């Protein structure tokens, strides 16, 4: 087709890179990474540079993450002048931290200077205070003040994450006046998506999307174009709430205001998308007790965050064992009980995890609130009854066939009881943690598992004794 | 402070609403919802209207989700002229679907007409074909064609999700010419964030952020302002990859091109954030076997998606039981085995889930690739050794104290074996599913649980027999 050459040449640079370096998922190909690492080991810096030079900064960041820790240093040295601020900003937090700790304060300061202030904050906020001070001392006053004021806000709040570079103009300004103002002031932020209109005490009174401005005649006053009802981000707001705000109101950027309502900065969606994806995915990791769950997390930290939950789980497992121990005599009489009891506990645990995962997600998205808790509880109860009866019929019939009909009836009833218990616990435990202002994702699974394990063993073994199958 | 009144009046409308209707998390207060539902039951449409009228469309959508199914109909009737396209677009898919199925085709068509085309597609894509046809027949040709062409693309691809309204201009145009063009063409999309520069056959050759345009003198040609190297979204790309693209390259919007490289639409980040959060959170739900895991999902569907995994889990639990049965004689001799064996299985399962959650997340984020699988496997092995030894010491000591030292040694060794097995399985199972082009989040947990259960029982009971503690 006539159209092909221009496509290859100008239109699809990404695809052009694709073929050699990126697969269809925009991930660096294993062969490509292998080549780079090979040249690194061979000490061929020039070769490495030529290989890496065509990459997008985000891909260079990925390359660092795909290399071993000891290789990252060499890579950084080999491609120093490709280590743009975009690369640093895109680096995984752990990888960035270890790399920065390896560098002298002056070097980090040099990097921090190139970065937008909000990225510079990210760069040094995880370093220990001594290093922070050393680096800040190297910075120009203006940058230092901006970064220090950001560090003054608690981690993971809008104050930490916001960019201080905003375009704020007075109400009486006309569209033409604004355009001229923007053309004259070259030192303004490069990318911005809305202009904030402020009053004489710097309180936001409205906002103009750039697209509206471009489409309005020069003589019109901004006050006639701007949207007065805008979503404002309190400077102390937690990043999770900021992310939900951006999602809920489909924001591209938003003004950040301090306690007195003054415009102090803005948050843009390109910074928020990372938070949205972090916050949305961390629940899976927290529920599984994997802590941060980042594959770049140092082993010691990963061990620390995971072993805590394994120990907690050990505690809950012991409770199950105590219940089993109480029925030791019955098990000695009928070993079939020992063979079957894990099934009741395991299915119950699975059912509880299902409901818990749904509830935790709904709570995180502000979908499960005081207003509809009862309805959701009733919903999960009905789902649990359906699941319980289905599984009970299956396992009951199998058990009746292999062992005795009575034992089949016992396990069937125990299964229904445990799956319904699991369904209710799966909603109530996270909801209760939420009410107690605890993160439902963190501790719920230990409790839900404890409840379903204990109930599974107790219901099954208890019914076995009561029904007399074990005597 | 003097500043307070203006703040209250203009600057913080959200906060003003907050006090009465929204809590600090921007969630509708239970009391407020209760009032609305009370008036609905009382049939006081006017009262309902007055209560709902001040809400943001996104909050009206939430209100529908917080009401029972039977109340939603009445609410829709009571606030008909508040049912803006924004409200419809913000509605949960299930809630929207059930509401649309309840309405006649003409009514849905009326709503579809007000919507942007991409939202209109969302509105009707889930309805059955007959309903779709009936609704499309009611639409103006232009809208119908746009929607039909979108429906022609597979679900969850860029073609389905993109907006067809883009600002595309020729290369030779000047900044001034563009601004005049935008001012004259009132029927252009209202909100857009970049202007796409195309060649004579409508292939994108560059892109201009609106902020660059606003800051450039009128006489400059776009070809001198535009960025030539832009990220293009192939029209057939899956939404998950689109979301990763937007995150990785921090995009606000991107051009969508067809197979021949022609510009056919654009995706904007405000549509993508929902996908990012969906894709990031669905893993937790899939891993737990909760399917869609939406609290608005009809009970029958929730039952169907969950019971499948409970049945699968029943199968894996039976395998565990078979292993236990093989050691029935040992258990009859030493009931302590029955008391302790669930601990080994349960902790192993927990350890496996931790590693699996980390691996599944890393795979989803394209962080765990062929290039670093071995390193991650080695990493998880070392974490597993640390966890295994820690837990083994605790449970071994306790068992030695309560039962016999030999039994303590047996359970300690079994625990180390099972936690290491869990660590390796937690990486390998998801990686293998990924290689087989299966979603690692879906089936991994069943297999990991099966492996850790079986290994837990086998290692513990087997060692008990071999070591002779059970004879």
Automatic annotation (TrEMBL), chains A, B:
<dbReference type="Pfam" id="PF00571">
    <property type="entry name" value="CBS"/>
</dbReference>
<comment type="function">
    <text>Acts as a magnesium transporter.</text>
</comment>
<feature type="domain" description="CBS">
    <location>
        <begin position="226"/>
        <end position="282"/>
    </location>
</feature>
<comment type="similarity">
    <text>Belongs to the SLC41A transporter family.</text>
</comment>
<dbReference type="InterPro" id="IPR038076">
    <property type="entry name" value="MgtE_N_sf"/>
</dbReference>
<dbReference type="GO" id="GO:0015095">
    <property type="term" value="F:magnesium ion transmembrane transporter activity"/>
</dbReference>
<feature type="transmembrane region" description="Helical">
    <location>
        <begin position="409"/>
        <end position="433"/>
    </location>
</feature>
<keyword id="KW-0460">Magnesium</keyword>
<dbReference type="Pfam" id="PF01769">
    <property type="entry name" value="MgtE"/>
</dbReference>
<keyword id="KW-0129">CBS domain</keyword>
<keyword id="KW-0479">Metal-binding</keyword>
<protein>
    <recommendedName>
        <fullName>Magnesium transporter MgtE</fullName>
    </recommendedName>
</protein>
<dbReference type="GO" id="GO:0005886">
    <property type="term" value="C:plasma membrane"/>
</dbReference>
<dbReference type="InterPro" id="IPR006667">
    <property type="entry name" value="SLC41_membr_dom"/>
</dbReference>
<feature type="transmembrane region" description="Helical">
    <location>
        <begin position="381"/>
        <end position="403"/>
    </location>
</feature>
<keyword id="KW-0813">Transport</keyword>
<keyword id="KW-0812">Transmembrane</keyword>
<dbReference type="Pfam" id="PF03448">
    <property type="entry name" value="MgtE_N"/>
</dbReference>
<feature type="transmembrane region" description="Helical">
    <location>
        <begin position="445"/>
        <end position="470"/>
    </location>
</feature>
<dbReference type="GO" id="GO:0046872">
    <property type="term" value="F:metal ion binding"/>
</dbReference>
<dbReference type="InterPro" id="IPR036739">
    <property type="entry name" value="SLC41_membr_dom_sf"/>
</dbReference>
<dbReference type="InterPro" id="IPR006669">
    <property type="entry name" value="MgtE_transporter"/>
</dbReference>
<dbReference type="InterPro" id="IPR046342">
    <property type="entry name" value="CBS_dom_sf"/>
</dbReference>
<feature type="transmembrane region" description="Helical">
    <location>
        <begin position="309"/>
        <end position="331"/>
    </location>
</feature>
<dbReference type="InterPro" id="IPR006668">
    <property type="entry name" value="Mg_transptr_MgtE_intracell_dom"/>
</dbReference>
<keyword id="KW-1003">Cell membrane</keyword>
<dbReference type="InterPro" id="IPR000644">
    <property type="entry name" value="CBS_dom"/>
</dbReference>
<feature type="transmembrane region" description="Helical">
    <location>
        <begin position="337"/>
        <end position="360"/>
    </location>
</feature>
<keyword id="KW-0472">Membrane</keyword>
<keyword id="KW-1133">Transmembrane helix</keyword>
<comment type="subunit">
    <text>Homodimer.</text>
</comment>
